[in-house]
Specification:
Helices cover 13% and strands 47% of the residues. The chain has 394 residues and is mainly β. It has 2 domains: 61 residues; 332 residues, 7 Propeller (Methylamine Dehydrogenase, Chain H). The protein is built from 3 helices and 30 strands. α1 runs antiparallel to α2. A 5-stranded antiparallel beta sheet has the order 1-30-29-28-27, with no helix packed on it. It is globular, with a radius of gyration of 26 Å.
Protein backbone atom coordinates (compact mmCIF):
# COMPACT_ATOMS: atom_id res chain seq x y z
CA UNK A 1 0.00 0.00 0.00
CA UNK A 2 1.34 3.38 -0.93
CA UNK A 3 1.91 6.21 1.54
CA UNK A 4 -0.97 8.20 0.06
CA UNK A 5 -3.32 5.23 0.45
CA UNK A 6 -2.21 4.85 4.04
CA UNK A 7 -2.96 8.50 4.73
CA UNK A 8 -6.43 8.15 3.19
CA UNK A 9 -7.14 5.09 5.34
CA UNK A 10 -5.95 6.88 8.48
CA UNK A 11 -8.28 9.75 7.70
CA UNK A 12 -11.11 7.30 7.14
CA UNK A 13 -10.52 5.71 10.56
CA UNK A 14 -10.56 9.09 12.27
CA UNK A 15 -13.73 10.05 10.40
CA UNK A 16 -15.44 6.83 11.52
CA UNK A 17 -14.45 7.51 15.12
CA UNK A 18 -15.81 11.04 14.97
CA UNK A 19 -19.01 9.77 13.34
CA UNK A 20 -19.51 7.33 16.20
CA UNK A 21 -19.08 10.14 18.71
CA UNK A 22 -21.52 12.33 16.80
CA UNK A 23 -24.09 9.51 16.74
CA UNK A 24 -23.70 9.11 20.49
CA UNK A 25 -24.13 12.84 21.00
CA UNK A 26 -27.17 12.81 18.73
CA UNK A 27 -28.72 10.09 20.90
CA UNK A 28 -28.19 12.33 23.93
CA UNK A 29 -29.75 15.24 22.09
CA UNK A 30 -32.72 13.07 21.12
CA UNK A 31 -33.12 12.09 24.76
CA UNK A 32 -33.35 15.78 25.64
CA UNK A 33 -36.59 16.02 23.68
CA UNK A 34 -38.19 13.59 26.13
CA UNK A 35 -39.94 14.63 29.31
CA UNK A 36 -38.35 17.60 31.07
CA UNK A 37 -36.46 16.67 34.24
CA UNK A 38 -36.91 18.35 37.61
CA UNK A 39 -35.42 18.01 41.05
CA UNK A 40 -38.16 18.54 43.62
CA UNK A 41 -37.26 20.57 46.69
CA UNK A 42 -39.47 20.94 49.75
CA UNK A 43 -39.85 24.59 50.74
CA UNK A 44 -42.31 24.23 53.63
CA UNK A 45 -45.04 21.77 54.60
CA UNK A 46 -47.58 20.99 57.32
CA UNK A 47 -45.05 19.08 59.43
CA UNK A 48 -42.27 20.45 61.61
CA UNK A 49 -41.85 23.60 63.70
CA UNK A 50 -42.29 25.89 60.69
CA UNK A 51 -45.46 24.96 58.87
CA UNK A 52 -47.33 26.32 55.92
CA UNK A 53 -47.57 27.74 53.47
CA UNK A 54 -50.15 30.48 53.47
CA UNK A 55 -51.60 31.67 50.19
CA UNK A 56 -49.65 33.68 47.65
CA UNK A 57 -46.09 32.36 47.49
CA UNK A 58 -43.76 33.80 44.83
CA UNK A 59 -40.53 32.87 43.05
CA UNK A 60 -37.61 34.91 41.70
CA UNK A 61 -35.10 34.12 38.94
CA UNK A 62 -32.49 32.89 41.43
CA UNK A 63 -34.83 30.15 42.61
CA UNK A 64 -35.63 31.87 45.92
CA UNK A 65 -39.20 31.44 47.16
CA UNK A 66 -41.10 33.93 49.34
CA UNK A 67 -43.96 32.55 51.40
CA UNK A 68 -46.07 32.93 54.51
CA UNK A 69 -45.28 30.38 57.23
CA UNK A 70 -46.48 29.58 60.73
CA UNK A 71 -44.94 28.66 64.07
CA UNK A 72 -46.44 28.34 67.55
CA UNK A 73 -45.86 32.08 67.93
CA UNK A 74 -47.96 33.01 64.92
CA UNK A 75 -47.53 33.77 61.21
CA UNK A 76 -44.53 35.29 59.48
CA UNK A 77 -42.96 35.88 56.08
CA UNK A 78 -39.95 33.91 54.95
CA UNK A 79 -37.75 33.20 51.93
CA UNK A 80 -36.03 29.94 51.08
CA UNK A 81 -33.85 28.54 48.32
CA UNK A 82 -34.56 25.01 49.48
CA UNK A 83 -31.71 24.88 51.98
CA UNK A 84 -31.51 28.25 53.76
CA UNK A 85 -34.52 30.02 55.29
CA UNK A 86 -34.45 33.78 55.84
CA UNK A 87 -37.00 35.46 58.12
CA UNK A 88 -38.58 38.60 56.65
CA UNK A 89 -41.33 39.00 59.25
CA UNK A 90 -40.85 37.24 62.59
CA UNK A 91 -43.78 35.10 63.80
CA UNK A 92 -45.46 36.74 66.78
CA UNK A 93 -45.16 40.17 65.19
CA UNK A 94 -47.86 42.80 65.46
CA UNK A 95 -49.56 41.79 62.20
CA UNK A 96 -52.86 39.95 62.57
CA UNK A 97 -53.14 39.18 58.86
CA UNK A 98 -50.55 38.90 56.08
CA UNK A 99 -51.41 38.71 52.38
CA UNK A 100 -49.69 37.34 49.30
CA UNK A 101 -45.98 37.90 48.78
CA UNK A 102 -43.99 39.12 45.77
CA UNK A 103 -40.20 38.81 45.49
CA UNK A 104 -37.73 40.37 43.03
CA UNK A 105 -34.29 39.18 41.96
CA UNK A 106 -32.60 41.20 44.73
CA UNK A 107 -34.55 39.21 47.31
CA UNK A 108 -36.79 42.12 48.31
CA UNK A 109 -40.22 40.87 49.36
CA UNK A 110 -43.36 43.02 49.11
CA UNK A 111 -46.62 42.20 50.89
CA UNK A 112 -49.80 43.69 52.36
CA UNK A 113 -50.50 43.24 56.07
CA UNK A 114 -52.67 44.60 58.88
CA UNK A 115 -52.29 44.86 62.64
CA UNK A 116 -55.95 45.46 63.43
CA UNK A 117 -57.86 43.72 60.58
CA UNK A 118 -58.96 47.12 59.30
CA UNK A 119 -55.99 49.31 58.37
CA UNK A 120 -53.82 47.59 55.78
CA UNK A 121 -50.33 48.73 54.84
CA UNK A 122 -47.83 47.81 52.13
CA UNK A 123 -44.36 46.73 53.27
CA UNK A 124 -41.06 45.49 51.86
CA UNK A 125 -38.15 43.65 53.44
CA UNK A 126 -35.22 41.36 52.70
CA UNK A 127 -34.31 40.14 56.18
CA UNK A 128 -32.97 43.32 57.77
CA UNK A 129 -36.12 45.01 58.98
CA UNK A 130 -39.18 46.33 57.15
CA UNK A 131 -39.81 49.42 55.06
CA UNK A 132 -43.30 50.92 55.09
CA UNK A 133 -44.22 51.69 51.49
CA UNK A 134 -47.85 52.70 52.06
CA UNK A 135 -48.80 53.49 55.67
CA UNK A 136 -51.80 51.66 57.14
CA UNK A 137 -53.43 54.89 58.31
CA UNK A 138 -53.14 56.75 55.00
CA UNK A 139 -55.90 57.88 52.61
CA UNK A 140 -55.50 54.74 50.44
CA UNK A 141 -55.30 51.27 51.96
CA UNK A 142 -53.57 48.56 49.87
CA UNK A 143 -55.35 45.22 49.48
CA UNK A 144 -54.99 41.91 47.67
CA UNK A 145 -52.05 40.85 45.54
CA UNK A 146 -48.96 42.99 44.92
CA UNK A 147 -46.13 42.80 42.38
CA UNK A 148 -42.55 44.13 42.62
CA UNK A 149 -40.08 44.48 39.74
CA UNK A 150 -36.28 44.42 39.75
CA UNK A 151 -36.14 48.21 40.01
CA UNK A 152 -38.16 48.15 43.22
CA UNK A 153 -41.34 49.52 41.64
CA UNK A 154 -44.54 48.03 43.08
CA UNK A 155 -48.01 47.63 41.60
CA UNK A 156 -50.93 47.27 44.00
CA UNK A 157 -54.67 47.77 44.38
CA UNK A 158 -55.82 50.41 46.86
CA UNK A 159 -59.14 51.32 48.50
CA UNK A 160 -59.76 54.95 49.44
CA UNK A 161 -62.63 56.83 51.06
CA UNK A 162 -64.04 57.63 47.63
CA UNK A 163 -64.48 55.96 44.25
CA UNK A 164 -61.90 58.34 42.79
CA UNK A 165 -59.22 57.16 45.22
CA UNK A 166 -59.99 53.44 44.83
CA UNK A 167 -58.08 51.78 42.02
CA UNK A 168 -54.75 50.44 40.77
CA UNK A 169 -51.49 52.17 41.74
CA UNK A 170 -47.81 52.06 40.83
CA UNK A 171 -45.32 53.02 43.53
CA UNK A 172 -41.78 54.06 42.59
CA UNK A 173 -39.30 56.52 44.05
CA UNK A 174 -41.38 57.07 47.18
CA UNK A 175 -44.47 58.11 45.24
CA UNK A 176 -47.66 56.28 44.25
CA UNK A 177 -49.35 57.06 40.93
CA UNK A 178 -52.91 56.01 40.18
CA UNK A 179 -53.40 54.12 36.91
CA UNK A 180 -57.16 53.43 37.06
CA UNK A 181 -59.98 54.21 39.49
CA UNK A 182 -63.58 53.35 40.32
CA UNK A 183 -64.98 56.81 39.60
CA UNK A 184 -65.47 55.90 35.94
CA UNK A 185 -66.47 52.59 34.43
CA UNK A 186 -64.43 50.31 36.71
CA UNK A 187 -65.65 49.07 40.09
CA UNK A 188 -63.51 46.14 41.31
CA UNK A 189 -59.77 45.62 40.92
CA UNK A 190 -57.32 42.75 41.36
CA UNK A 191 -54.21 40.99 40.16
CA UNK A 192 -51.86 43.88 39.31
CA UNK A 193 -48.48 42.90 37.82
CA UNK A 194 -45.52 45.10 36.90
CA UNK A 195 -42.53 44.28 34.69
CA UNK A 196 -39.05 45.80 34.64
CA UNK A 197 -40.11 48.34 32.02
CA UNK A 198 -42.74 49.69 34.40
CA UNK A 199 -45.71 48.34 32.40
CA UNK A 200 -48.65 47.31 34.60
CA UNK A 201 -51.48 44.90 33.92
CA UNK A 202 -54.55 44.38 36.08
CA UNK A 203 -57.92 42.65 36.28
CA UNK A 204 -61.10 44.66 36.82
CA UNK A 205 -64.88 44.63 36.70
CA UNK A 206 -66.27 46.99 34.07
CA UNK A 207 -69.73 48.55 34.45
CA UNK A 208 -70.14 49.40 30.78
CA UNK A 209 -69.88 45.79 29.62
CA UNK A 210 -71.26 44.33 32.89
CA UNK A 211 -68.40 41.88 33.10
CA UNK A 212 -64.66 41.74 33.81
CA UNK A 213 -61.54 42.16 31.73
CA UNK A 214 -57.76 42.46 31.58
CA UNK A 215 -56.10 45.82 31.02
CA UNK A 216 -52.58 47.09 30.48
CA UNK A 217 -50.97 50.44 31.20
CA UNK A 218 -47.62 50.67 29.38
CA UNK A 219 -45.16 52.85 31.28
CA UNK A 220 -46.20 56.46 30.74
CA UNK A 221 -48.77 55.59 28.07
CA UNK A 222 -52.53 55.26 27.62
CA UNK A 223 -54.37 52.27 29.07
CA UNK A 224 -55.06 49.38 26.67
CA UNK A 225 -57.96 46.95 26.83
CA UNK A 226 -56.60 43.43 26.40
CA UNK A 227 -59.82 41.45 26.56
CA UNK A 228 -63.24 41.71 28.19
CA UNK A 229 -66.09 39.29 28.80
CA UNK A 230 -64.42 37.27 31.57
CA UNK A 231 -67.60 36.80 33.60
CA UNK A 232 -68.15 37.45 37.30
CA UNK A 233 -65.34 39.14 39.21
CA UNK A 234 -63.01 36.66 40.95
CA UNK A 235 -60.19 38.14 43.07
CA UNK A 236 -58.08 35.01 42.47
CA UNK A 237 -57.72 35.82 38.75
CA UNK A 238 -54.76 37.83 37.47
CA UNK A 239 -53.04 38.31 34.10
CA UNK A 240 -49.33 37.40 33.90
CA UNK A 241 -46.86 39.88 32.39
CA UNK A 242 -43.23 39.38 31.31
CA UNK A 243 -40.46 41.83 30.42
CA UNK A 244 -41.19 41.58 26.69
CA UNK A 245 -44.65 43.01 27.39
CA UNK A 246 -46.36 39.69 26.69
CA UNK A 247 -49.44 38.97 28.77
CA UNK A 248 -50.67 35.40 29.27
CA UNK A 249 -54.17 34.50 30.42
CA UNK A 250 -56.98 31.95 30.25
CA UNK A 251 -60.08 33.05 28.37
CA UNK A 252 -63.30 31.78 26.84
CA UNK A 253 -65.76 33.43 24.44
CA UNK A 254 -67.59 32.62 21.21
CA UNK A 255 -65.11 34.38 18.97
CA UNK A 256 -61.83 33.08 20.38
CA UNK A 257 -63.00 29.87 22.01
CA UNK A 258 -61.60 28.49 25.24
CA UNK A 259 -57.92 28.19 26.04
CA UNK A 260 -54.71 29.94 27.03
CA UNK A 261 -53.86 33.11 25.11
CA UNK A 262 -51.13 35.72 24.89
CA UNK A 263 -51.38 39.41 24.10
CA UNK A 264 -48.62 41.66 22.78
CA UNK A 265 -48.53 44.77 20.59
CA UNK A 266 -52.29 44.79 20.25
CA UNK A 267 -52.55 41.20 18.98
CA UNK A 268 -54.07 38.17 20.73
CA UNK A 269 -52.71 34.70 19.95
CA UNK A 270 -54.11 31.35 21.07
CA UNK A 271 -51.44 29.17 22.67
CA UNK A 272 -53.46 26.22 24.01
CA UNK A 273 -56.99 24.99 23.45
CA UNK A 274 -59.23 21.99 24.02
CA UNK A 275 -58.63 20.57 20.54
CA UNK A 276 -55.53 18.86 21.96
CA UNK A 277 -55.09 16.64 25.00
CA UNK A 278 -56.37 19.21 27.54
CA UNK A 279 -59.99 19.82 28.43
CA UNK A 280 -59.53 22.42 31.19
CA UNK A 281 -57.01 25.09 32.17
CA UNK A 282 -56.42 26.97 35.40
CA UNK A 283 -58.06 30.39 35.59
CA UNK A 284 -54.63 32.01 35.94
CA UNK A 285 -51.34 31.10 34.24
CA UNK A 286 -47.77 32.38 34.57
CA UNK A 287 -45.35 33.37 31.77
CA UNK A 288 -41.59 33.90 32.05
CA UNK A 289 -39.30 36.12 29.96
CA UNK A 290 -38.64 33.27 27.52
CA UNK A 291 -42.36 33.06 26.81
CA UNK A 292 -42.79 29.69 28.55
CA UNK A 293 -46.21 29.43 30.20
CA UNK A 294 -46.81 27.36 33.34
CA UNK A 295 -50.37 26.31 34.09
CA UNK A 296 -52.51 23.76 35.85
CA UNK A 297 -54.43 21.66 33.35
CA UNK A 298 -56.82 18.72 33.22
CA UNK A 299 -56.34 16.16 30.46
CA UNK A 300 -59.10 14.43 28.50
CA UNK A 301 -58.52 11.35 30.69
CA UNK A 302 -59.22 13.53 33.79
CA UNK A 303 -55.60 13.49 34.98
CA UNK A 304 -54.70 16.88 36.49
CA UNK A 305 -51.24 18.32 36.62
CA UNK A 306 -48.85 21.22 36.10
CA UNK A 307 -47.41 21.70 32.61
CA UNK A 308 -45.19 24.14 30.75
CA UNK A 309 -46.39 23.44 27.21
CA UNK A 310 -48.88 21.63 25.02
CA UNK A 311 -47.33 18.15 25.32
CA UNK A 312 -48.60 16.45 28.50
CA UNK A 313 -45.62 14.06 28.49
CA UNK A 314 -42.65 16.18 27.49
CA UNK A 315 -43.97 19.35 29.17
CA UNK A 316 -45.13 17.75 32.41
CA UNK A 317 -43.84 19.14 35.71
CA UNK A 318 -45.95 16.93 38.00
CA UNK A 319 -49.36 15.27 37.97
CA UNK A 320 -51.87 14.07 40.55
CA UNK A 321 -50.96 10.44 41.22
CA UNK A 322 -47.26 11.07 40.77
CA UNK A 323 -44.63 10.46 43.44
CA UNK A 324 -43.38 13.30 45.63
CA UNK A 325 -41.36 13.23 48.85
CA UNK A 326 -42.04 9.54 49.50
CA UNK A 327 -45.79 9.67 48.95
CA UNK A 328 -48.36 10.17 46.17
CA UNK A 329 -49.74 13.53 45.04
CA UNK A 330 -53.50 13.69 45.66
CA UNK A 331 -54.10 17.36 44.86
CA UNK A 332 -52.41 20.39 43.31
CA UNK A 333 -53.51 23.85 44.41
CA UNK A 334 -53.38 27.34 42.98
CA UNK A 335 -51.49 28.57 39.94
CA UNK A 336 -47.84 27.62 39.57
CA UNK A 337 -45.16 30.32 39.23
CA UNK A 338 -42.31 29.89 36.72
CA UNK A 339 -39.01 31.77 36.59
CA UNK A 340 -36.60 32.37 33.71
CA UNK A 341 -34.64 29.18 34.47
CA UNK A 342 -37.81 27.15 34.11
CA UNK A 343 -38.12 26.42 37.85
CA UNK A 344 -41.72 26.08 39.03
CA UNK A 345 -43.32 26.39 42.48
CA UNK A 346 -46.62 24.76 43.38
CA UNK A 347 -48.86 23.83 46.32
CA UNK A 348 -49.58 20.14 46.89
CA UNK A 349 -51.36 17.58 49.05
CA UNK A 350 -50.02 14.05 49.54
CA UNK A 351 -51.70 10.73 50.30
CA UNK A 352 -50.07 10.72 53.74
CA UNK A 353 -51.99 13.89 54.62
CA UNK A 354 -49.09 16.32 54.24
CA UNK A 355 -49.68 19.62 52.45
CA UNK A 356 -46.96 22.00 51.39
CA UNK A 357 -45.12 24.16 48.91
CA UNK A 358 -42.52 22.67 46.58
CA UNK A 359 -39.95 23.98 44.11
CA UNK A 360 -39.51 21.97 40.91
CA UNK A 361 -35.95 22.89 39.99
CA UNK A 362 -35.32 22.44 36.26
CA UNK A 363 -32.43 20.11 35.45
CA UNK A 364 -30.15 21.32 32.60
CA UNK A 365 -30.93 19.46 29.39
CA UNK A 366 -28.50 16.78 28.15
CA UNK A 367 -28.24 18.60 24.82
CA UNK A 368 -25.74 21.05 26.29
CA UNK A 369 -23.64 18.17 27.58
CA UNK A 370 -23.73 16.38 24.24
CA UNK A 371 -22.44 19.48 22.48
CA UNK A 372 -19.62 19.67 25.00
CA UNK A 373 -18.75 16.03 24.32
CA UNK A 374 -18.62 16.66 20.58
CA UNK A 375 -16.40 19.72 21.04
CA UNK A 376 -13.99 17.83 23.28
CA UNK A 377 -13.91 14.89 20.87
CA UNK A 378 -13.04 17.12 17.92
CA UNK A 379 -10.31 18.83 19.92
CA UNK A 380 -8.93 15.46 21.02
CA UNK A 381 -8.82 14.15 17.45
CA UNK A 382 -7.05 17.28 16.31
CA UNK A 383 -4.49 17.06 19.10
CA UNK A 384 -3.97 13.31 19.03
CA UNK A 385 -3.73 11.95 15.50
CA UNK A 386 -2.89 8.26 15.66
CA UNK A 387 -0.23 7.49 13.04
CA UNK A 388 -0.89 4.61 10.68
CA UNK A 389 2.13 3.40 8.75
CA UNK A 390 2.30 1.29 5.61
CA UNK A 391 3.87 -1.58 7.54
CA UNK A 392 0.98 -1.63 10.08
CA UNK A 393 -1.52 -2.01 7.26
CA UNK A 394 0.12 -4.93 5.52
Amino acid sequence: MSASQADELALMIQTLRLSAILLFAASLSAASTEAAAYNFVKIVDSEGTLTGPGAGASLNNSGVVAFQGFTSAGSGVFTSNGSTITTIVEPGNSFTSIGSTAINDSGVVAFVATADSASYGLYTGSGNGLTTVVAPNGPVLPFGDVSINNNGAIAYSGAGNSLASTGVYKHIGGMSTQLANAAGSFRDFGGPEINDAGDVTFYAAHDAVNTTGFYKVPNGQVRETIVEGLGTFNPQIRPSLNNAGTIAFTYANQQLGYGVFTYNNGAIAKVLNTAGPFKEFSQTVDVNNQGVIAFTGTLDNNVRGIYVGSDPVNDKVIEVGGSLFGSKVTEIYNTPNINNRGDVIFYYQLANGTTGLALARAVPEPAAGSLAIVSLAVVALRRRTIPVTTSQLR
